[in-house]
């Protein structure tokens, strides 16, 4: 695990998490700005989830508020975690239909980008689609497979996660749209991903597993699902068999420059 400057907030005796006024203000700035940017760019299932969640604009939501909606929709809930968690904990949570949420928000200095997933990324980026049964099923299957996987297999699974749940695009009757939460919580990447600048390829799970990525740059390549339901269908297939094929075939050459030392 890497280190972080952020510390997740703990709940009080009644389970309520207190944030400072400046932190609520960061949430307000982020959600107000991003709701405008995702309009016409996010897939309809995501926008339906945003509507169902009815997130507050003026304050950081409590996890219970999100849980009431998620639980009714798909049986999922969010789980409070520290700023960074080990892979093992991550897979255990997903396998029990719990999505990890670190209860801290980025500082105003890191408004546009931070390396750690904060509460805005997790709730605004991921929770809307966790109201969708197809997306929820895929995420759960992913967790159960990851829990049983070896360390080496998990690296291949992580690339599949990155290029779907975090950075996936999908074709819809309205045109090409975004479903990845890593994109949808970033104003810059939401615009850039559909700008025509980065490469788009039809989604192929084995190819995604073979694609190296960097977490600290805009993605040079996105994989496009034919429809969101494809994730549900993928969850019924032999994903670990695909991991083994990808391991045999090896990694693609990166499409990004090496990280500066
Ligand atoms: Fe994420």
Descriptive overview:
The protein is built from twelve helices and six strands. The protein is α/β, with parallel strands linked by helices. It has a single domain, classed as Phenylalanine Hydroxylase, CATH 1.10.800. The strands form two sheets. The protein has a four-stranded mixed sheet. Strand 3 and strand 4 form a beta hairpin. 38% of the residues are buried. Fe (ii) ion binds next to helix 5 and helix 8.
Q: How do the strands and helices of this protein lay out in sequence?
A:
Elements lengths: L20 H18 L5 H10 L9 H12 L2 E5 L5 H9 L2 E5 L16 H8 L6 H16 L2 H16 L2 E4 L2 E4 L2 H4 L2 H7 L5 E4 L2 H5 L11 E5 L3 H7 L3 H11 L12
Parallel strand pairs: 1-2, 3-6, 5-6
Antiparallel strand pairs: 3-4
Helix pairs in contact: 4-6, 6-7, 6-11
| Overall average pLDDT | 96
CATH H level, superfamily name: Aromatic amino acid hydroxylase
Spatial extent as radius of gyration: 18 Å
Which CATH class applies here?
Mainly Alpha
Q: List bound small molecules.
A: fe (ii) ion
Strand numbers in spatial order across the main sheet: 4-3-6-5
Give the SSE string.
HHHEHEHHHEEHHEHEHH
Principal-axis shape equals globular
Query: What is the total number of structural domains?
Result: 1
First and last CA, distance: 19 Å
| Helix content, binned percent | 40-55%
What structural category do the secondary elements indicate?
alpha/beta
CATH architecture: Orthogonal Bundle
């Amino acid at each position: 695990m890497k280190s972080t400057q952020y510390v997740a907030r703990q709940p009080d005796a009644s389970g309520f998490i207190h944030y400072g006024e400046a932190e609520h203000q960061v949430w307000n700035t982020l959600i107000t700005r991003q709701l405008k940017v995702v309009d016409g760019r996010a897939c309809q299932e995501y926008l339906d989830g945003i509507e169902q969640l009815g997130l507050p604009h003026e304050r950081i939501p409590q996890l219970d508020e999100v849980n009431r909606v998620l639980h009714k929709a798909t049986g999922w809930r969010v789980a409070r975690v520290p700023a960074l968690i080990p892979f093992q904990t991550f897979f255990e949570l997903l396998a029990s239909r719990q999505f990890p949420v670190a209860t801290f928000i980025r500082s105003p200095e890191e408004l546009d980008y931070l390396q750690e997933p904060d509460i805005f990324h997790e709730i605004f980026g991921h929770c809307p689609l966790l109201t969708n049964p197809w997306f929820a099923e895929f995420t759960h299957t992913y967790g159960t497979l990851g829990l049983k996987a070896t360390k080496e297999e998990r690296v291949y699974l992580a690339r599949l996660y990155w290029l779907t749940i975090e950075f996936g695009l999908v074709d819809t009757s309205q045109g090409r749209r975004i479903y990845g939460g890593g994109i949808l919580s970033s104003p810059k990447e939401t615009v850039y991903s559909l700008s025509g600048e980065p490469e788009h390829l039809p989604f192929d799970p084995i190819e995604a597993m073979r694609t190296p990525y960097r977490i600290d740059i805009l993605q040079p390549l996105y994989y496009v699902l034919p429809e969101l339901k494809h994730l549900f269908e993928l969850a019924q297939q032999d994903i670990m068999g695909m991991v083994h094929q990808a391991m045999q075939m090896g990694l693609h050459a990166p499409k990004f420059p090496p990280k500066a030392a």
